[in-house]
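Bit of a strange request maybe. I'm writing a small parser for structure token strings and I need a real example to test against, not something I typed by hand. Could someone generate the tokens for this chain?
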Amino acid sequence: MATSDSSGDGFQTATVSSGNYDGDDAEWIPLPDEGEVIQGIILAMTPNSGDYDQLRVRFKSTDGDDEGEIRLAHFNQTLEDTVHENGISEGYEFRLEGVDSYEWTDDDGNEREGTERELEYRA
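Reply from user aminoacidic:
Good idea to test on real output. This should exercise your parser:
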């Protein structure tokens, strides 16, 4: 993951090729923690993926040391809702930044840590 000061301007929409991506070597990356950023062009989105039925996002990185590499990430429910509410789709470029850390107590009384994230996008 890369860190970045600003999102910048001049994003362009990429063309999206269809196909089965399961056989390639795309690397899974975690969602960014506080102060970290992931950024890329969405190539494909798959709903209800993985153990927790999350939105799987396949993207081409456009920032940092891994620029140009194909990556995969699972978006949590909050991010998935944000994607749908804003009409974000394949071909859009996104920038996801971890902006703050927080603590909360789960239903079992366990202390947990979380990261507030901000999602920006361009068509």
